Amino acid sequence: MSRKASSTTAKGPLLERMVGWSARHPKKVIVGWILLVAVAVLLGDAAGSGAKTTDAGEAGRAQSMIREQKVTSSYTENVLIEAPGRDKPFLGSAELESTAKDLSDRIRALPGATTEIVTPLDNERTRAVLVSEDGKSGLVSFTIPGPGAEADKHFAKIRTEVEAVQAAHPDARVAMAGDISLTSAVDKAADEDLAQAELLSLPVTLIILVVVFGALIAAAVPLFLAATAVLAGLGVLGLVGTVIPANSTVSSVVLLIGMAVGVDYSLFYLRREREERAAGRDAAEALKISARTSGHAVVVSGITVVLSLAGLFLAQIDTFNGMAIGTIIVVSLAVLGSVTVLPAMLSLLGRRVDALRLPFLGRSRTTATTSRGWSAIAGGVTRHPVVFGGIALIALVALALPAFGMKLSEPGQLDSLPRSIPAVDAGVRLQQAFPGGADPAQVVVWGAGATTGAADQAVEELRRQAAASDLLGDQISANPVGDVLSIKVPLAGGGTDDTSVEALRTLREDVLPQAFANTSGLEYAVGGRTAGLHDFATVLETRTIWVIGFVLVLSFIVLVIAFRAPLVAAVSMVLNLLAIGAAIGIVVLGFQNGNLAGLLGFSSFGGVVNWLPLFMFVILFGLSMDYHVFILSRVRERWARGESAKDAVIHGVGSSAGVVTSAAVVMIAVFAIFATLSGIEYKMLGVGMAVAILIDATIVRGVLLPASLSLLGDRAWALRGRPAPVVEPEPTTENTIEPGEDVKVLSQVGATEEGTR
C-alpha cells in the first residue's frame, strides 16, 4: 500500500508531489529550511540601514529636495525651564534664570557639541521668542551637528549635563525635548514593544496549542514553523528594505501576522494529519490526504492573502508599500513551510508527534469529532434564519455605525507614547508652553539665489505675517541646507489636530503666496510632520477606492473559482465587510472616543491611525478566507454528497468547528498581545484585528453564514441556475473523502440523523 501511495504522489498534482518529496527526504528539507532561515537572518543583519520612506504629495517634494543636498544633518533640541508648579514667572526669578545660565554655560563648555545655543537671557529678541506667552516658562534652544553617529555622542554628553543641572536646581523643572530625544524615545519604545511581543507571543501560543493538541511535541511543531517563518521574514525584510522603505511598525506587523498565519496554517495541516492517522490510515496516506485537503486550502488562502496585500501597492504610499512587502514575505514563507518542512517534520516524527501527552487532554484531542455546541447553534439558526440572522445583522450594523464618524489622523510622537516616558512628558509640556514648537512646518526654497539673498525679502514678509497671525508662531528660523533654504515655521495646535491643519492651510494658501509674490526664479514646497500627515490623508482618500475595488474583485474571483458558486462568493464578501466594519466601529469607540483609554493605558488623540482601516481591510479580507474556505468547503462537500442544504450547513459548521475555533483562538491571542504594548498604533491594530477575528469566528460563522446559506438553499451552490452535479469533493475542500468511503460516511450521517429525530 505504501508503494502505491508513493507512486500516486509522484504523479499527482504539484502540491502533492512537493509534500511527498518532503516526506521522503525529511532531514534534507528540515536542514534546508534551517539554513534558509539562518541565511535570511544573516543577510538581513548585514544589509545595513534601510531605504527611507518619503512623504506623499507636496511634503514629499520638500523632503526629497532636502535629501538631495546630501549634506550633514543637524538636530535641534530644546530644554524647558519653569517652576514645578508653573507658579512663578521665568523672568525675575533668580532660581529659574540661574538655571538657564548654568545650563547654557555647561553646554557651551562641551567642545563641538553644539553649533548654536540661544537662551531667553541673551537679548531682547531672544527674550521675546524664548519666554512663553504667559511668562512662566523659558526655553534654551541649541543645535547639535551631525552626522547621526556623532550627534548621538554629543547628545549623550548634553543629556548628562541636563541631568546635572536638574540635580543642582531642584526648585526648577528642567525638561529636554527635540529631534534626537523624541526620536530616541520612539525607537526605544518600538524596540521594547517588539521584544515584549516576541516574549509574550511564544508562551501564550504554546499554551493554546498544548490545549488544542494535548501533546507538547504536536504543539511545538506549529510554533517552530511560525517562529522560523517570522525570523526569516524579518531577515528578508531587512534585505528588501534597502530598496523598498519599511518603517519600524512593519517589523511588529510582520511578527503579528507571521505568528498568526504560521500557527494557523500548520494547525490546519497538522490537525487533519492527526485525524487521518486516528482514523487508521498510515503516515504516507495521512500526509497525502492532508496535502490534498488542508494543504491545498492553506495554499489557496495564502495566495489570496498575498494577492489582497498586493492591492496596497495601488495606494502608491511608502508606508503601505513597506507593510505590504513585509507581510507578503512572511505569509509566503509560512505557506512554503507548511507544505515542505511541516510534512517533513511529521514524517520524521511519525507517531512520536503525539509524545508527551498531557493528562485529560492527550487522548481526546486526536479524535475527529463534530462539535455538538456549534451544530446545535447552526441547527437553531437554520430553523429560524430570518430571526437569528436579523438579530445578528442588526448587532453588527450597530457596531459598525461609529465607523462613519471615523476621523483619520496620525498620532504625533507625543500622542503615540505614554507620558511616563520623560522625553514625551517634556515634549507635551513644551507644546503647551510654546504651541507649534514641537512640529514646525518646513518651507524648502530652491532656485537661483535661494541661499544667497534672493529669498530674504520673502522671509521677512513671512515673519511679519506670522507675527500678526494666531495660527503661526513668530519663532521662524531660516538656514541654508546645501543649495536650498530651509525655513521652519511653528504651527498652532498639537501638530495633528484641526488647528494645526488650518494653520498649514493658512501657510500654504495665504501667507506663502503673498510672501513670495515679488520673487522670481524661486520655488518652494511645505513639508514637516503636519504637512506630511495632511498630504498622506489627501492621497489616501483619492486612492482608497482603487485598493478596496481590487481586493473585492479579486476575492470574488477566488471564491467563485474555489466553489463555482457566485452567490456563496457574494455572501462571503458581504459578511466579511460586516465583520470588518464592526471591528473598525469598535476601534472608533475605544480609541477615537477614548472609551478604552483607562483599560489599555493611553491618551486619545481624537482619531484613528490613518493607515489602520485600509490595512485592516486588506489583511482581514485575506485572513478571513481561512475560515470561509474551510467552513464552506465542508458545507459544499456535504451538499454535493446528497444532503439537504440545511443539513449540509449544520454538519459542515459542526465538523469544522474544532479546527476553526482553535485557529481563531490563536489569532485572537496573538493580536490581543499587541493591545498591551506602549504605542497607540499597536494597541489599535491589536484590538481591531482581534475583534474582527472574534466576530468572524462567532457571529459570522455561527449565525450569519448558516442563516444566509439556509435562506439561499440549493441556489447557493447552483451553477448558472442549475444544481451542481453530485461529484466527489474537489481537492480544494477541507475534508475530502477517499474513494470507496462514501457509503460508509453517508451511512454514518444517516445514522446520526436518525438518532437526532
UniProtKB/TrEMBL annotation:
It is found in: Cell membrane. The chain crosses the membrane at residues 199-218, 223-244, 250-270, 297-317, 323-349, 386-405, 545-563, 570-591, 611-632, 653-675, 687-712. It is a multi-pass membrane protein. Its main location: membrane. Keywords: Cell membrane, Membrane, Transmembrane, Transmembrane helix. Pfam families: MMPL. PANTHER family: MEMBRANE PROTEIN MJ1562-RELATED, MEMBRANE PROTEIN YDFJ. Residues 219-348 form the SSD domain. GO terms for cellular component: plasma membrane. This is RND superfamily putative drug exporter.
